[in-house]
Amino acid sequence: MFCRKRHVVNKVLNTYTLPTDEQKIVKLVRSCGNNLHEVVTPEGEKFLVTMPTKFRNYLWVGRGSFVVVDPIVEGGKVKGEIIQLLLKEQIQHLMDEGVWPDSKGFSVPSLEKPKTNSDSNKLFVNTNSPYVDYPSSEEESSDEESEDEDNSS
Fold this sequence. Notes:
5-stranded mixed β-barrel; alpha+beta; translation initiation factor activity
């Protein structure tokens, strides 16, 4: 079992093939369960794709990942099968070859140059909980002082 996992992972990490004419590069939008994933094309078309059995127990794909999909002709709801998971190096290779789709939603933030050098961009942001901006204690104390001055006048 371990040998098969090593073979599958090695194939995913070291495969730099270009997609054929019928294959598409798509972005994963969400996981629907039962090894089904909703994807979006550069044109904005959304459809379901399936994860093949050889990848199911060995690879994890997350929201925002890029994959190469082979279309299923007879598919009703499920219109494709994941052929390859694209990692940063493979995406860079596709960009160098001129095969990467030119779409705003398909820009890869990790490959783009950072706009600022601040350390706050490197901090982890938890997107699972809402952001609440609490006033700092300095602002509260200055508000109280101004109220005291207004009351004494």
